[in-house]
Amino acid sequence: MSITVNIYYRGINGNARRFAEEMESSGTADLIRSEKGNIKYEYFFPLNDAETVLLIDCWNDQKSIDNHHSSAMMKTIIQLREKYDLHMKVERFISDENGIPDSDTKFIKK
């Protein structure tokens, strides 16, 4: 079982994109990717909303997320969120232990 958290960062005047760029250029995103239990930490930009950035953040389990939340990096992330005055919408998903059903695989081109 893994846990995926989608975080939509919303700002104004390009602040969400600048936040993501600073997370990458400062090395903070790479430090998070190297944390024990992190599976994925990637930013995406919606085509229909230039003021939002989507972070897809995936972890092995809740303990890994709790450890991340208690890490020193959270202080950096919170400071950057404040710097860019970002607001967040969060979605949380738990993986399906059975994987992708056979009925859906016919729609996936590999």
- Fill in the CATH topology: Alpha-Beta Plaits
What is the residue-mean pLDDT, rounded to a whole number? 95
- Biggest sheet layout: 4 strands, antiparallel
CATH class: Alpha Beta
By secondary-structure content and strand pairing, the structural class works out as alpha+beta
The tally of strands reads 4
Order the strands across the largest sheet as they lie in space: 2-3-1-4
CATH hierarchy: architecture: 2-Layer Sandwich
Order of helices and strands: EHHEEHHEH
Radius of gyration, whole Å? 15 Å
**Helical residue percent band:** 25-40%
Note the main attributes of this structure.
Alpha-Beta Plaits, alpha+beta
Structure description:
There is one protein chain. The chain is of the alpha+beta class and 110 residues long. It has one domain (3-95): Alpha-Beta Plaits (2-Layer Sandwich), CATH 3.30.70.100. Helices cover 36% and strands 28% of the residues. The chain is built from 5 helices and 4 strands; from the N terminus they run E-H-H-E-E-H-H-E-H. A 4-stranded antiparallel beta sheet has the order 2-3-1-4.
Quick gist of this model?
The chain is an alpha+beta fold. The chain has a single domain, classed as 2-Layer Sandwich (Alpha-Beta Plaits), CATH 3.30.70. It is built from 5 helices and 4 strands; from the N terminus they run βααββααβα.
What secondary-structure arrangement, pairings included, does this model have?
Elements: E1 3-10, H1 15-25, H2 28-33, E2 38-44, E3 52-59, H3 62-69, H4 73-83, E4 87-94, H5 102-105
Antiparallel strand pairs: 1-3, 1-4, 2-3
